[in-house]
Amino acid sequence: MMKTQGAAIGWTLVRVVFGLTLALSHGLPKVTGDISRFAEGVAALGFPFPTFFAWSAALAELVGGLLVALGLFTRPAAAFAAFTMVVALYRHRVDPFGRMELALLYLAVLAAAVLVGGGPYSLDAKVRGRRA
Questions:
Q1: Which of 17, 29, 69, 111 is buried most, with the most CB atoms less than 10 Å from its CB?
Q2: b/e string for 31-68 if b means 16 or more Cβ within 10 A?
Q3: What stretches pass through the bilayer (predicted)?
Q4: Burial of 83 (0-12, 13-18, 19+ CB in 10 A)
Q5: Is the pTM value of this prediction over 0.90?
Q6: d(CA 99, CA 96)
Q7: Rounded to 5 degrees, what are φ and ψ at 90?
């Protein structure tokens, strides 16, 4: 529960900005671009069915990011997207910190969304008929 209106507005701002950025800057380009290139990277990580998992990751970023931004099905959407960020962190484990930093930031915010939910200014709260 958000104790103050400032906390509720602050969480909403973080949720919307991170959700939209994940969806539009990372998910959308994968979905509308050449998924086979991304699937090659997934295959290099040792995943079976790399095209399936590439699409799963791309949709987790696009749809999950949009749902987190809207605050609709926030916890499950954030959980799927967070799992994708765990894989991204694994992928960048040997890279300099600056390369893995973005996945770490997304993971932190998505983990918070799993724990906190959408907050009082979300569609989840509206569906439940409350703002508290």
A1: 69
A2: beeebeebbeebeeeebeebeebbbbbbbbbbbbbbbb
A3: 6-26, 38-60, 66-90, 102-123
A4: middle
A5: yes
A6: 6
A7: -60, -45
For residue range 28-61, what is the model confidence (pLDDT) as tens digits?
999 999 999 999 999 999 999 999 999 999 999 9
Question: What is the residue whose two structure tokens read 């991204």?
Answer: 88
pLDDT in tens, 94-123: 888 988 999 999 999 999 999 999 999 999
Q: Which of 66, 79, 84, 57 is nearest to 17 (CA)?
A: 66
CA atoms within 13 A on the CB side of 90: 12
Shortest CA distance to 58 belongs to which of 31, 34, 85, 83? 31
- Segment holding 64, helix H or strand E: helix 50-70
Spatial contact of 75 and 114, defined as CB atoms under 8 Å apart:
yes
